[in-house]
UniProtKB/TrEMBL annotation, chain A:
Designated gene of the protein: paaC
InterPro entries, alphabetized: Aromatic_CoA_ox/epox, Ferritin-like, Ferritin-like_SF, PaaA_PaaC, PaaC
Family annotation (PANTHER family): 1,2-PHENYLACETYL-COA EPOXIDASE, SUBUNIT C (PTHR30458:SF0), PHENYLACETIC ACID DEGRADATION PROTEIN PAA (PTHR30458)
Protein name according to UniProt: Phenylacetate-CoA oxygenase subunit PaaI
Biological process terms in GO annotation: phenylacetate catabolic process
GO cellular component: cytosol
Length: 265, 97
């Protein structure tokens, strides 16, 4: 697969749904645009991060698994961004400050355990979020109903690896614990309300914590200490404030499109 | 690549498609245990179509017939027509023979 999403990326073949035809930059549904952007950016950015693993995973089978998850996410991103405007314009021509993804998904891959820790936190959140969204009546409900099956698999994949690494060797235990701890402060932001989103995000926090605690306990790991909300934690990604590595990621992702503006691919 | 071969043994994958009647050998893969083998098989061989069934078997658990014994194993006794009951007339009204 290509790590850089293009209009012709084979994402929709086995992913959420074919992207609806965008009507220029004009939002198809103004009410859905803001939340679609937040969720779409989450999926797009995490998809790109996972794409960076291509050719570098620990084993061939895991390579395929990570690429699969990346493709699922890219498919979700395409549908969501198309609801907010033109998917390519939104992905390739926005500046860093215009992206609305949470800071967790833009964190660099680190080692494999670090990537798995990020996947565990985010996919558990995404499963709860899409589950709620699917049962509501918002314009995003149909997408969520399809995507929730994908993210349930992503969560299962992350859980399996958390158990293996946590309850594996001394070194794997230490590495996954390090990843979980390092990323902990980015988790509070996930539950900040997103204006216009038909989900009570703060109310999902308890369910998320219970699930994470259960997995970490089974994996002989400890839930990180320290705040996940408040000072010194992430919280502004949804407002367009991002961490330093994100700018470099965007530069790579957008390079070709910006070098050849207006080209068709 | 750094994993020892013994940590990631070979598994054979059998898949039954949604409308399929039987499991068919789809290929093989490496995995540390059955659970991971199932998940890898799902990614590699099923493209996640729903309503299908996957079997994974450690390759070591499969006994295969030997190619050297092929003749004695499989050569049909073609010159003994009584072993091939093709000459029966099928009575009328038998529907599912």
């Amino acid at each position: 697969m290509k790590p850089v999403p293009t209009a012709q990326a084979p994402a929709t073949a086995d992913s959420a749904a074919a992207a609806p035809a965008p009507a220029g930059s004009l939002a198809r549904d103004v009410a859905a645009a803001a939340p679609a952007l937040a969720l779409g950016d989450d999926a797009l950015v995490l998809s790109h991060r996972l794409g960076e693993w291509a050719g570098h995973a620990p084993v061939l089978e895991e390579e395929v698994a990570l690429a699969n998850i990346a493709l699922d996410l890219l498919g979700q991103a395409r549908v969501l961004l198309s609801l907010a405007g033109d998917e390519d314009e939104l992905a390739y021509l926005r500046e860093e400050r215009a992206f609305r993804n949470c800071q967790l998904v833009e964190q660099p891959n680190g080692d494999f355990a670090h990537t798995i820790a990020r996947q565990l936190y985010f996919s558990t959140y995404q499963e709860l979020l899409y589950g709620q969204l699917a049962s509501g009546g918002s314009p995003l409900a149909p997408l969520a109903a399809k995507a929730v099956k994908e993210v349930a698999y992503h969560r299962d994949h992350a859980e399996q690896w958390t158990l293996r690494l946590g309850d594996g060797t001394e070194e794997s235990h230490e590495r996954i614990q390090r990843g979980l701890t390092a990323l902990w402060r980015f988790t509070g932001e996930l539950f900040e309300p997103v204006p216009g989103l038909d989900v009570d995000l703060p109310a999902l926090h308890d369910a998320w914590t219970t699930r994470i605690e259960s997995v970490l306990t089974r994996a002989t790991l400890t839930v990180p200490e320290g705040p996940s909300r408040g000072a010194w934690t992430a919280g502004a990604g949804r407002q367009g404030l991002h961490t330093e590595p994100f700018g470099r990621m965007l530069a790579e992702m957008q390079h070709l499109h910006r070098s050849h503006p207006g080209a068709t691919w | 690549p750094t994993a020892k071969p013994t940590d990631w043994p070979l598994w054979e994958v059998f898949v039954r498609s949604r409308r399929g009647l039987s499991h068919t050998h789809a290929g093989s893969l490496h995995a540390p245990d059955a659970e991971m083998a199932l998940r890898n098989a799902r990614d590699l061989y099923t493209r996640r179509s729903e309503g299908i069934s996957i079997w994974v078997v450690p390759s070591a658990a499969i006994s295969a017939s030997s190619p050297d014994e092929k003749d004695s194993f499989f050569e049909p006794a073609a010159d003994k027509p009584y072993r091939h009951p093709t000459f029966y007339e099928i009575p009328d009204g038998v529907q599912h023979l």
